[in-house]
Specification:
By secondary structure, this protein is mainly α. The protein has one domain. The protein is built from twelve helices and no strands. The protein is globular. The N terminus is likely disordered.
Amino acid sequence: MSGVDPARSSIEPQVGRPAWLPAGLFVLLTFVCSWVPWLVLVATSADPFTGPGSMALWVAGGYGPTVAAVLAAGILGGRGGLRELFGGLRRWRLGRWYLVLVLPLLVAVVAVLATVALGPASLEVAGIGHWMLFPAMLLGGVLLGGLEEIGWRGYLLPRLQSRIGPIAASVVIGLVWSLWHAPLFLLTSTSQASMSPTWFTLHAVALSLVLTWIYNGSGGSVLLAVLFHGVVNGAYDAVVGGVAPETLEGFLAPATLALAAIAAVGLLRHR
């Protein structure tokens, strides 16, 4: 996996500052910013999709990693830290790297077909109206999921992989990322409520490995990571809902295996 060297001065520990502080502060702020609104929903048994107030809490929690990255970068790095954080969003001249955005759609199709073949679910192809909403699903995936990458890959990944390497950093982020979603498993209307926590965790680790490959291989493009994450969310929603809605519960296992295969190829090619 090829390395990146974005703004070393803001990533390497300052004199008298513990090496774990930037990553630790980010993770702490992320959980506070996200879990406080989400746990309010859990405590009140609210449905985040039935009212503007509960929807606002659900959305606010989703932006926790982004808000935490901005706070941590500003507190520890000042203006220079913020410039470094958002610099990755300006890396957009990526040529063929944009082709990786097709991968989530392929993974979704393969996973749904595998789930149908191995389980009791059947194909229920949606009408044209569903597929006309596909661009909106992708945009929603970016705005309500992809922007997390400003925190996970834009802030946390470079600080971890400079200490423990990209593979170990990817696994750690995947585990933290999975735990971060925990309150959503307690809200019956969310997609996580019908998923296996074990497979969700494995999926987060596999996706984290893929995103590390994309981030490093593209020269530290946070923009590409944001788009890829958004396409994952949008493609999964579109394909599961438009081809076989009953496959959601068993979808993660084949999707995880497909992502793991992509990560393995990426790691071997960019070691």
